[in-house]
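Database export, one record per block. Field names are fixed; values are copied verbatim from the stored entry.
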Amino acid sequence: MTRTFDNRQCLLGEGPLWHPERQQLFWFDILNKKLLSRINNDEKTWLFEEHVSAAGWISAHALLIASESKLFLFDIETGAAQLLCPLEADNPVTRSNDGRADPYGGFWIGTMGKNAEKGAGAIYRYYQGELRQLFSRITISNAICFSPDGTTAYFSDTATQSIRKVALDEHGWPAASDELHIDLSRDNLNPDGAVVDRDGYLWNAQWGASRLARYSPDGSFVDEITYPAAQMTCPAFGGPDMKTLFATSATDGLNGKDDGKTFTVETAVPGQAEHRVLL
């Protein structure tokens, strides 16, 4: 049974991250340029000058945050920010969207047009001081996540209604061409954010379908969790035993009483702890 974790209604809730050292959830309201968190009943909000969308954890006090023009280091305690590298800083059309740290200490981040301009975005990896473009001509970057053994990365261009996979080498770089993993077009489903549990099953938020869907490692549908919000955006495992599944949602274009809230549900299988970004 799903429960509400946070009642604040995000215009575009995204990028939930369970910080394993702090035992604390962070997430974003991209269109309102906010980073959100809470500790019990204590709500936290940080406001930025441009869109922020995804994060990885570096230490107990530091996050790597992706914004519309850069990757930067953020001190949770002081609010201090330090530029790490530009991200399409010369392109006013795009902003960052979905991202996640990989098992090798790298950070994958996708971009997209602010108005979902066709093919305007890309997917990058930051690793050992280098930001390298991996995939181009992406319309809405999403579903970046990784198999537990570190051999496979998953990602989506939501506009294609499919989730793709790519084999990784021993340093976490793509080692082959990407290929189709899950075709959602037959059911007219729109893949948003995704995460992989410890058994290698992929959990995908599906925009407009009021659900998270779980898929086996071979890409076949297993089951679903339904929510009172229509536009589910991204899941994240957390909690002391990693069996709490958090999920963000969006109010964008809607006015339902639960749209945009952040939810939890307890699962039978644990997720993977989020990987640390190594600088």
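Remark 1: Residues 205 and 212 are 4 Å apart (CA to CA).
Remark 2: The chain has no helices and 24 strands.
End of record.
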